[in-house]
Each structure stands twice: as C-alpha cells, then as structure tokens.
Amino acid sequence: MISWNDPIAFIRGLTAQQRKAAALLGCETVGQLLDVFPRRYDDYSRTVPIAEIQDGIPVTVACRVVEIFQVKTFRRSFILLKAKVADASGTIDVTWFNQPWLLKTLLPGTDIFLSGVVTRRPRLGRGFTSPLWELNSPETLAAGIVAPVYPLHGAVSQKMVRALCKAAVEQVTFLEDWLPETVRIHVRVSPLDQAYRQVHRPHSMQDAEAGRTRFAFGELFLYQCALRIARFEADVAGAPQVLFDTNFAKQFVAQLPFELTDDQKKAVWGIIQNMSTKRPMRRLLQGDVGSGKTVVAAMLSALVYRSQQSAVFMAPTDLLAKQHFETLRRFLLPFQIPILLRTGSARILVEGGEERKLTVDQINQRTLQGRIVCIGTHALIEKNAAPPDVALAVVDEQHRFGVVQREALAVAKRHDGLVPHLLSMSATPIPRSLALTFLGDLEMSIISTKPKGRQAIETMIVVGDRGHEKAYERIRSEVIAGRRAFIVCPFIEESDVIEARNVEAEVRRLQNGPLKGLRIGMVHGRIPTREKDATMQAFADGGLDILVATTVIEVGVDVPQATVILIESSERFGLAQLHQLRGRVGRSSYKSYCFLGLADDGPAIGRLRVLEKTQDGFVVAEADLNMRGEGNVLGTQQSGEVLFKTARITDVNLISTAKEQAEKLAAQDATYQSYPALYRLIQIMRENQHRE
Ligand code: ADP
Ligand code: MG
User: Fold this and answer.
1) How far is residue 137's CA from residue 142's CA, in Å, rounded to a whole number?
2) Ligand 1: nearest atom to the Cα of 296
C-alpha cells in the first residue's frame, strides 16, 4: 500500500504519460490527486444489445469490430474513420474523426465496449459518432460503469485521469476520518475512505451522489465550525461600545438632501442597537443596486465620530473608494467631521474646512491620532492602516461570495484587543438560508424599497443587427439629451488578451458606424489601473458619452446621468450579474433603458425574459439559482482559494444540518480542540482565507 502524502510516482503501474498528466493537473501527491473531484458522471452502466439501442440515449454495447477503414476526404488534415461493429443481436456503424491510430488498435475481431449516443446524421447515416471505447477486459475504466467526468486542463484526457484515480483509490491507505464519529453516524454519511471510493469508482449514480454528499457535508460542517470559532473569538474579545447621540442623529437626517426611506431608517436603527452593546456586530446590509446603502453607512460613520471614535469604510477598488470619499464628504461637510482618503494613488485629508494632500508619514500620524472617518480599500484593515480607535468597519459591495466568506472568518482586532463592529454591504440579494452559511449567525438588514421618484428601467432583448439598431438609436437620442451610455462586452475567461481585442474592435466598429461622432472611451483588463480610473472619471464627469467596457464596471460606479446600458452577448452572463449590470443605470429620476444584446434567436431568450419582466433583485436571484441548479458549487473561483469544491447552492438541507451539528458540538467544546483532526482542518481553512 502507499500512503496519502506519497508522491504520485509511488502509484504502481503508471505509464510515464500518466505521471505527466498528474503533474499537468497540478497534483504532486496521491492525496492531492484524489481530492480532484469529478464534476459529474456519465452513466454507461446500462449495457444493451445493439438491436435495442434507442437513438439519443447514452448506452454501452459490448461488441466485436467487424471492419474499420479510412474514408478519403478532400481535406488532407481531416481524417475520417468508419467502422462496423456487431454483437449477437445486430450490427451498427461507428465514425471517428482525426484518430488515425485506431486503425492499428481496433483490428477486426477485437472485443470492445463502446459508450455513447446513437444518432441519425445527415450524410453519415445512423450510428455512433466518436464514442468512448475500451478493450473488453476486467480493467474497464468507463464503459459499462458510471464514469466520473473530471475537470481537465488542456492536454490531459478523461481516460488518463480515470486510470490515475482508479489506481490511486485501489492502492492508497486512506487517512483517518476527521469527522467526529458521533456526527457522522447522526447525519448518516459515508466514512471518508468509502466516500473516496464512491466518488472515484461508483457502482451506481446513487453511489456517486452518496460520496459527494459526504464531502459536501464535510465542507459545510468545517465552514460552520470555523464561523463559530471566529464568532466565539470575537465575542470573547468584545467590541468598543458606541454611545449614540439622538439629537445629533436628528440633525444629520434633517440636513440630507432627501428623506430616508423606511427601510434605510430601520437599517440605521438596527445597527445602532447592535453597536451600543459590547458584543461585536456582524451584520449584512442587503439592498439592491441603487437602493441607497451608502447614506446608511455615512450616517453611522458620523454617529461613530460623534461618540469620539473612528470609522473605516472599505471599497473593492481605488476608484470606488474615491467615489465614496466624494459622497461621504458631502454628507459629512455640515458637521465638520474630518475625513481621510487612503488608496494606492491618493492620500487626502479634509479637516477643519480645508483639503490637503498628505505624505505617507503625515497620513500615518493623522491616522494614529484617531477620531476620524477613513476611506480606502481592503488594505486599510489588512495593512494595519486603520485608526487605533476604529469602532465600525464598513465593507462595501461584497457581492462576491468569496469576499463575504473571508469577512466572516476573519477577526481583525485593534491594538487594544477589541474587535470593531462589522457592517458588510451587499447588492446581491442572498437568500436567507445561504446568507446563514456565509456569515454564520449574522444579523441582517434589508433595504427593499428604492428611493422615491425612481422609474423602472425599461429592459428589452435586442436580437441581431435590426434589434441593435433600436438600441443605438436610443443611445444617440439620450446622448443628444445630455445623458450617457454603457456598452458591456463579455468577459472572456482565461484570455484577457482576446477580451481586450474584442473591446478595441467594438470601439472601432462603433466609431466608424452606428455611433459615429460620439465620444467613446473604453476600459478593459489590459489597461493600466491609472488610465482606467481616468477614463471612468471622464465618463462620470461628462467628458465621454459612451463607455465601452468589460464587466469591470459591474462594481458600484455611480453615474446618475448614465441612462442606457447595452449588454452584448448577454447570454454569457448569469441573471444576477445582468441585474447587477443593469443597476448601473436608473440611478436618478431620468428614465433609463437596458438592452440585452443577442447575436441571434437562441434558447437563451427564455431565461433573459425574466429581466424584462421584473426589477426585483430577489426574484432575479431566485430565478438565477433555480436555473443554474445542479452542478453549481457554492463559492466562486474569483476568490482564489475555493472554499467549497463539492457543496452546491441547492444543498439546503445539508447546510442546515451542518449548522445544527456544529452548534451541538460547540456546546460541549466551544473551540473544538478536543477533536484534534477537526481542529487542525478548521485552522487551515481560516488561514487559507486570510492569506488571499
Ligand atoms: P447603492 O445601494 O447601490 O450603494 P447608493 O448608495 O449609491 O446605492 O445610492 C444611489 C443613489 O440614490 C445615490 O445618488 C443616493 O444619493 C441616492 N439616494 C439614497 N437614498 C435616497 C433617498 N432616500 N431618497 C432619494 N435618493 C436617495
Ligand atoms: Mg454602492
């Protein structure tokens, strides 16, 4: 037997090619290999006689090769093989493309398994096209079984990974199960070793699902335990108490240029209640884009200042930090509250009615004095750039789950050991059950009504050239009326070069055609941050009419004069993301328009109709969840370290069971230290989240 942490090379019977494949997958040890989980399974367990094959349904046949030959084609680079295979019940045709070596492998008379789907094809007739095949031997990897489908990179084939994992599962000595036995038995999930076998070598689809369930539960349970420890640590440390001045709160509300909505008032009140205790607040403020979350944070920051302490306000990018700085500055101006902007490119202090650019030393000094409102990016807390008396940390636009997760696991302490109150603001409506997993026992505020005077954003799917002409017409007329437009090109995974080229080509096309004469700017991932910020600023200030961008604009830019957004290849975006993008317009009392561009009529239209019909982010989020459905794991790739590899958004029952069990165990041992294996994994999970 070989052990879990042995190098891949220790697995017996591997070919050099298979070892190379493991390296390409990024696996060095046997354990790392087995922790590559299949994305899904192909069920080839039904072996049927050839005569009974139904078109369109995946099947496996056990058959013998009767003949195989190459068909001449006109293109030399294209190789077409045709074969006839037979069993006792009949014969069927098979076609393979560009696999000339099969001529030498599948000699007539060879017994094989073929797995695939039979279809009737124009020109080729009825038969299998490029089916999986294997020699008929007890060592089969896919045919005749439930075959795992692994996530792959480039040069590695499914067959290769299946062979690797099969050998590994058979030879390895599994680690001891870290899940406390009482929990495992109560929840009735497989022991660890069995689960690995079920996942990599399932006997049936149910078997595979049982294995996945065990890992999903494990991930969710670990996460819940980590959340409870984080909460426990925070509670033990305690928070700075913030005493509120009701008169001041009234004055603040009175000087606002608008009246707060009921939901905004309720949110402020709920947060005030939390912060006047010594228990660190962990609260999520959810509100659709444009619902007015910033003013809530501004008011709380002012109240914190009034209680002789500091607040920090963190945005995901320098540009957004700058925008928030300008906004808060306006809200705080009447009260002479000092406010500081600290980003990679700017250090600005507004204090005593005057604005100053600061050196690094100066800003550090001023920060140390405390009693100030600081605005910046995440670096504020991470790089210890927060004032020593920070009582409230606001984290804005946390609609990437990964970031919310990290926030929940991290416990940033001040020098005196106290933990500041935390307010996460999110524009993505997260269903309550999910929010609970992400942030544990957090408090939640929801702003569901938009400020008065907002009009619904007219949303329309536009197909092909004729549809687009409608969108361009609207863009031109809005620009003439003094407004601005966003045009969004799709994000292209894994190639920002292609993505950048697309954006550039689109700008040229628009400049020479449909939007000739308008002032068009562009931003994409290949443009340096400084230049990008300048372009966005020019667009915000009115120096540009049109901004052609990738999804970099998704996060929070506030340009009230932008009234049109055209989203190209809209079928490539999730509904929630489209809703988020749509929220870039409709931020004023002007009527706004959202065009969902499609190249042609396709199946995507049905899905996109949801957006034509509703403006309600919760409805969109729900529809999005339902449509993404299975195979959709929790968490995102964007956050680097993936927290959940097997748990899915649809595992609602597992989520609540994991929470219950974590609580039950914590009742006996608040920090889980009497379960050393579990404790170690929790620590690793928390460290990984911090490291990002
Ligand atoms: P988000 O929740 O997306 O961060 P913002 O805080 O940027 O939304 O608010 C969007 C716009 O609505 C801002 O221009 C803001 O000044 C304005 N706003 C906020 N609250 C109200 C209100 N109660 N009445 C009218 N306008 C408001
Ligand atoms: Mg915002």
Assistant:
1) 11
2) 6
